């Protein structure tokens, strides 16, 4: 019985890149909202692919459950699961509103909660599985102009640690990668990095003096989901060019 990986969004960010790497490593896949041409590419690589056509709004508990159930209905099990969560909320604390806080918590805490609540019980029942949640390196240190976002990300990181500790005796791994300074549209929009001058200033704050790519981030994530390393859990690994 081959390994099956579930990717909660393959329309953007590192999702399509992770899907390609996992297909190349012999995984069958459950993919949500795949970008154009991705499914055909994965099938050509030898993967059997279950397509969940709609974008999964993980803040909706029914949506996360439906995605996991689609994988179980097709393959009978899920060995690895990946989600990209969060909503970037910027601005100073003194100018913030309760609505800003609600948005940060809903995107950064509620989304990973529902994802974990949907996928972890199945893995606990099988006494194996790997879960990877993408959070943010902003959850590891105070972040100017994003205090609510940073705080909500810190809460998500602690939730990952708590879930990991609770289920570790069953053999299930739960980890997180906290990214920052990644070269993708949402970060560039939020930071203004599409302006070359702004991008140069941002990159000067990164010890490695550049933004991270989706390809290298996907490669970094593999040991947490591809079944080759099963002795790490409860870790929040920051991927931010040395910023943390």
Automatic annotation (TrEMBL):
| A Pfam family per the record | adh_short_C2
What are the record keywords, sorted? Oxidoreductase
The record's InterPro entries line, in alphabetical order, gives: NAD(P)-bd_dom_sf (IPR036291), SDR_DHRS6-like (IPR051122), SDR_fam (IPR002347)
Q: Which domain of life is it from?
A: Bacteria
Task: State whether keyword Oxidoreductase applies.
Answer: yes
Q: One GO molecular function term?
A: oxidoreductase activity
What does the sequence similarity comment in the record state about its family? Belongs to the short-chain dehydrogenases/reductases (SDR) family.
In Swiss-Prot or TrEMBL terms, this protein is called: 3-oxoacyl-[acyl-carrier protein] reductase
Naturally occurring in which organism (per UniProt): Ilumatobacter fluminis
């Amino acid at each position: 019985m081959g390994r099956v990986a579930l990717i909660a969004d393959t329309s953007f960010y590192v999702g399509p890149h992770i899907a390609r790497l996992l297909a190349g490593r012999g995984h069958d896949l459950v993919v949500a909202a795949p970008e154009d041409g991705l499914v055909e590419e994965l099938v050509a690589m030898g993967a059997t692919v279950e397509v969940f056509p709609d974008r999964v709004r993980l803040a909706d508990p029914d949506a996360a459950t439906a995605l996991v159930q689609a994988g179980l209905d097709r393959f009978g099990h899920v060995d690895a699961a990946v989600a990209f969560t969060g909503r970037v909320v910027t601005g100073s604390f003194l100018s913030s509103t309760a609505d800003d806080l609600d948005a940060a918590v809903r995107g950064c805490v509620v989304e990973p909660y529902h994802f974990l609540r949907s996928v972890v019980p199945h893995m606990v029942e099988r006494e194996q599985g790997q879960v990877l949640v993408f959070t943010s390196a902003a959850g590891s240190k105070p972040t100017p102009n994003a205090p609510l976002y940073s705080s909500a990300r810190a809460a998500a990181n602690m939730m990952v640690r708590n879930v990991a500790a609770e289920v570790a005796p069953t053999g299930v791994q739960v980890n997180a990668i906290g990214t920052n300074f990644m070269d993708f549209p949402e970060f560039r929009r939020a930071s203004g990095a599409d302006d070359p001058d702004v991008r140069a200033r941002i990159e000067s704050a990164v010890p490695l003096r550049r933004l991270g790519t989706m390809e290298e981030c996907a490669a970094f994530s593999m040991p947490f989901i591809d079944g080759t390393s099963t002795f790490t859990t409860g870790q929040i690994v920051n991927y931010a060019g040395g910023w943390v």
